[in-house]
Amino acid sequence: xxxxxxxxxxxxxxxxxxxxxxxxxxxxxxxxxxxxxxxxxxxxxxxxxxxxxxxxxxxxxxxxxxxxxxxxxxxxxxxxxxxxxxxxxxxxxxxxxxxxxxxxxxxxxxxxxxxxxxxxxxxxxxxxxxxxxxxxxxxxxxxxxxxxx
Length: 149
Description:
The chain is mainly α. It is built from seven helices and no strands.
């Protein structure tokens, strides 16, 4: 199921994404260093058709590591941001051991899917160049990179 409209541009989909998620990070609530990461991260939600719940975020983090040009050390620095750590801690605070186990199994499945996605892609996604694609229809972006959702 496509969460985002493939006929609309990336910018149009981002506008809808922010309208539907008004409590997410914004330019006003995050520092510049994290902002550099969050805005392209939001574009990745749309490009790779990832939801914004915990499983969608976990899926997207794995895709980010294997299907984009982000460096592991930069990725780790972003995850170590106090705001992200605090917000993530709030989300998983009430999880039971069996729920953690399910998350691990889900992550393993997503890891395998991400590897197959990466093999099929014509080239990796340039995280910080998402703005070059803002006026492109989502279906064209996915076709250009051979991303199937």
